[in-house]
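Quick one:
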Amino acid sequence: MSLGDSSLLCPHNAAKSVLAAAYCRKLATQRNIAVHVDSAGTHPDSVVSPLVIKAVQAEGIDVSDYQPRRVTQDEVGAAWRVLSLGCPPDDLPQPLGAVEYWDDVPPPGQDLALTRAVIIEHINRLLDEQDPGQWREPPKSGM
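Output:
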């Protein structure tokens, strides 16, 4: 199974999109689905949130070397799907292909466990489209 190129976007590319890309890779690997995902931002910060780095390190995922960056028009134009986690539509490079707005994902600084759970639910749904009926990691109630 294969999931086409996907771009995960959040305004600062320092928290939500970094979490989503990390969990997408992890969950796809567990389900033996090949993925190519990347994260970017419309107004990137200079570093990934230390809260996010610590949270995923506890699960064996290392994003400490990731450098937030600005999304390009070429990326969104070539993506199988663009997944926006809080980016206003007018901030996204145009023209866009298929876009999903995951506006229900709360900021990790408000409730990291809920952020993680909502992201994992979205990713499981996305992976189910490629490989329905397979094992799914349930969201954890806390970190």
